[in-house]
């Protein structure tokens, strides 16, 4: 199997690295189109001859083409990519907001899989939600899901409209976690802990909580109650969250992310 990756930013490099480490794709079977060609030491073992500034007939030899470009750059990509691709090839897109129908129309192809991975893919702990056009058969879907799963876990949804909400939940989600962690670190520093001590306190707390939640059969509500004794310190903190409607603020933020994903694909 031959793979072409359009765009060699964080996601493009992550896919290439994951495929190679998992041994599902050989180095020499990966082609990359990037505005800036990498130095040899950053090529991940992919032959330098396989790197191009613009799509060429080499792309026509690929079975799957992965679009790792920004949605704002899609129109520009179409101009150079459309002349060298065929209907038999599978397009896997990670562009936020750009619909399957738009990709089919602009590129003049039929087999399209639209996905939304998140930052965790960089360490093999990613979460990807994906959907496919009707022309993708079960075999193709299985092949692509195996590729995606080299970067973590995935969920297939028949309803493409769920991709934008997935962007708001898991795609943008890591930033929400980092934001909350950062706020806790700053608060710990105000208590008097050094920055390094605050980092360890918060990091280990999140790490322990996530692993405990993964290992437990209890719901999040039940886990909260295990920490929050009546009249105790945790209940006092949670009451501040409730008073300030933190859950509503989080929901509003995710709705905003969803709306922006829709706008980007318009």
TrEMBL record:
* Function text: Catalyzes the reduction of 1-pyrroline-5-carboxylate (PCA) to L-proline.
Q: Where in the cell is it found?
A: Cytoplasm
Which InterPro entries does UniProt cross-reference here?
A: 6-PGluconate_DH-like_C_sf, NAD(P)-bd_dom_sf, P5C_Rdtase_cat_N, P5CR_dimer, Pyrroline-COOH_reductase
Q: Which HAMAP family match?
A: P5C_reductase
Protein's name in the database: Pyrroline-5-carboxylate reductase
Catalysis: reaction(s): L-proline + NADP(+) = (S)-1-pyrroline-5-carboxylate + NADPH + 2 H(+); L-proline + NAD(+) = (S)-1-pyrroline-5-carboxylate + NADH + 2 H(+)
Ranked from the top, the taxonomy reads: Bacteria, Pseudomonadati, Bacteroidota, Flavobacteriia, Flavobacteriales
Keyword Amino-acid biosynthesis listed: yes
Top-rank taxon of the source lineage equals Bacteria
Question: Per the UniProt record, which EC number(s) apply here?
Answer: 1.5.1.2
Location of the Pyrroline-5-carboxylate reductase catalytic N-terminal domain:
2-97
Keyword field: Amino-acid biosynthesis, Cytoplasm, NADP, Oxidoreductase, Proline biosynthesis
Q: Is the keyword NADP in the record? A: yes
Q: Which NCBIfam families match?
A: proC
Q: What is the main EC category here?
A: oxidoreductase
Q: Which family does it belong to?
A: Belongs to the pyrroline-5-carboxylate reductase family.
Gene symbol of the encoding locus: proC
Per the UniProt entry, what species is this protein from, by scientific name? Flavobacterium hankyongi
The residue ranges of the Pyrroline-5-carboxylate reductase dimerisation domain are: 160-264
Q: In which pathway does it act?
A: Amino-acid biosynthesis; L-proline biosynthesis; L-proline from L-glutamate 5-semialdehyde: step 1/1
